[in-house]
């Protein structure tokens, strides 16, 4: 059994390996929701390279490192928009082939999901990512705030507004089926 | 660190998660290889994660960003050198496009659809290789670009584009050489066509690999618009392709740095009309 002195290169590497193995899957999924699935691994690789270089800034606890990594990923993706055209939110995809898969389904949940898929397309990118952080990334308000760079309280307010917006769109009598993500995987869902 | 909320909407949304539920073995193998490549770098020396030999370059981003009034989401990335270095990948790039026709146009369109996987998925309602649905097809040196419109299986009008290296066109399955593609709801759906003498910018994007970038823009052209010339923030003068009421242009942009004026500034456009009138100094036409 070997040990490494805290702060040594070996200890740093061991710690990084542990974070990587504990968070890679979640980070890959985070990226898959926001870029075309074939590019998600590239985003994940970029984020972990940043984490390796900024290891001293990364929170020590895995549960704290995860939202920090999500925040790096978000900044990395947003950073591809420059100057006056820069945006401050990333749109989030919804499941591939949703409409096609559910079109023939008759159960109530399937119908509701179809309605939600339609409503999702009508949310702003800000609303989409606020909801995604809670529902798909599974973060609490503090963690989501780390990703978005806001307080937990501010995040809760945003989440409340986004959910109201989703419900309003989902129950709108003018709702029409959303395009499936399979046909919009590389464009904003608007 | 999870939320305790579990209302019906949340439960229904969980079933709509677009991400993979499980990471498959191939993904796991690549993840392990990526980890080892990262650990092999000096954390104090900014270096890039190299693509392992024999593995296709997949370095292509397409960011999903909030739509703006004029600007839509577009980002992609390739192995791109700096323009100042005139690196290998863009060495043949030309500011003047050459229109693609005949067999070459068909080959480029086929390669684009293959890269996007749309033919296999049966996603499109009709074959965009039909001449009428290809809006722009051009080459700039060794890089080919197409823009097409098609009705998707969902019934929505879609717009797709590809920017591809010569290697990709020759062998679309290989993934070697770099390419960029998109397929999304038409950005200008519901918007009226521009006036006869107006060129509108519908889409503008930056693609990046490592620290290198390129920029591209697409838009709608009024019936009297016959030419568009772009002066980039860095001073490049680039001729756009204009066809079928659409226009498109792209150029190498150099370093992916906030200090790079190509990325922080805005281009200007010179629009030439059918009667010879030239409207210059247009910013962000729309």
TrEMBL record, chain A:
One of its GO terms (molecular function) is DNA binding. Residues 20-87 form the RNA polymerase sigma-70 region domain. InterPro entries: RNA_pol_sigma-70-like, RNA_pol_sigma-70_dom, RNA_pol_sigma70_r2, RNA_pol_sigma70_r4_t2, RNA_pol_sigma_r2, RNA_pol_sigma_r3/r4-like, WH-like_DNA-bd_sf. One of its GO terms (biological process) is DNA-templated transcription initiation. Residues 166-190 are annotated as: Disordered. Keywords: Sigma factor, Transcription, Transcription regulation. Gene3D superfamilies: 1.10.1740.10, Winged helix-like DNA-binding domain superfamily/Winged helix DNA-binding domain. It comes from the Bacteria. Residues 116-166 form the RNA polymerase sigma factor 70 region 4 type domain. Residues 171-190 have a biased composition (Low complexity). It holds the Pfam family Sigma70_r4_2. PANTHER family: RNA POLYMERASE ECF-TYPE SIGMA FACTO, RNA POLYMERASE SIGMA FACTOR RFAY-RELATED. Belongs to the sigma-70 factor family. ECF subfamily. This is RNA polymerase ECF-type sigma factor. It comes from uncultured Nocardioidaceae bacterium.
């Amino acid at each position: 059994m070997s040990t490494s002195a805290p702060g040594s290169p070996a200890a740093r590497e061991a710690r990084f390996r542990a974070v990587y193995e504990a968070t890679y899957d979640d980070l890959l999924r985070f990226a898959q929701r926001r870029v075309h699935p074939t590019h998600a691994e590239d985003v994940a690789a970029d984020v972990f390279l940043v984490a390796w270089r900024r290891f001293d800034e990364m929170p020590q606890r895995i549960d704290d490192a995860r939202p920090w990594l999500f925040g790096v990923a978000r900044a990395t993706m947003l950073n591809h928009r420059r100057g006056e055209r820069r945006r401050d939110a990333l749109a989030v995809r919804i499941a591939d082939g949703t409409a096609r898969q559910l079109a023939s389904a008759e159960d109530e949940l399937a119908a509701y999901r179809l309605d939600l898929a339609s409503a999702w397309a009508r949310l702003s990118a800000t609303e989409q990512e606020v909801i995604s952080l809670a529902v798909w990334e599974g973060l609490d308000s503090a963690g989501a705030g780390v990703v978005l760079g806001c307080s937990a309280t501010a995040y809760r307010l945003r989440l409340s507004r986004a959910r109201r917006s989703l419900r309003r769109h989902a129950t709108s009598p003018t709702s029409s089926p959303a395009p499936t993500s399979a046909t919009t995987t590389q464009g904003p869902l608007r | 660190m999870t939320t305790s909320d579990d209302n019906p909407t949340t439960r229904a949304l969980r079933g709509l998660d677009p991400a993979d539920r499980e990471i498959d073995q191939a993904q796991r193998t690549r993840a392990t290889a990526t980890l080892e490549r990262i650990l092999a770098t000096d954390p104090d020396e900014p270096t890039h994660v190299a693509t392992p030999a024999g593995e296709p370059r997949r370095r292509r981003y397409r960011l999903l960003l909030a739509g703006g009034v004029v600007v839509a989401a577009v980002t992609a990335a390739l192995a791109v050198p700096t323009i100042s270095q005139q690196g290998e990948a863009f060495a043949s790039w030309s500011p003047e496009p050459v229109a693609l026709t005949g067999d070459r146009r068909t080959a480029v369109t086929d390669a684009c659809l293959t890269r996007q996987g749309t033919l296999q998925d049966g996603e499109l309602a009709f074959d965009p290789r039909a001449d009428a649905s290809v809006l722009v097809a051009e080459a700039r040196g060794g890089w080919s670009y197409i823009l097409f419109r098609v009705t998707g299986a969902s019934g929505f009008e879609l717009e797709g584009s590809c920017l591809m290296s010569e290697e990709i066109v020759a062998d679309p399955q290989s993934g070697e050489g770099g390419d960029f593609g998109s397929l999304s709801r038409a950005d200008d759906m519901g918007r009226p066509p521009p006036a006869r003498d107006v060129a509108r910018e519908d889409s503008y994007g930056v693609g990046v690999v490592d620290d290198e970038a390129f920029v591209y823009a697409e838009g709608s052209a009024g019936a009297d618009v016959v030419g568009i010339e772009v002066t980039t923030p860095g001073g490049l003068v680039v001729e756009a392709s204009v066809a079928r009421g659409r226009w498109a242009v792209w150029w190498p942009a150099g370093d992916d740095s906030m200090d790079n004026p190509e990325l922080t500034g805005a281009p200007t456009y010179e629009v030439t009309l059918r009667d010879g009138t030239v409207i210059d100094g247009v910013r962000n036409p729309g």
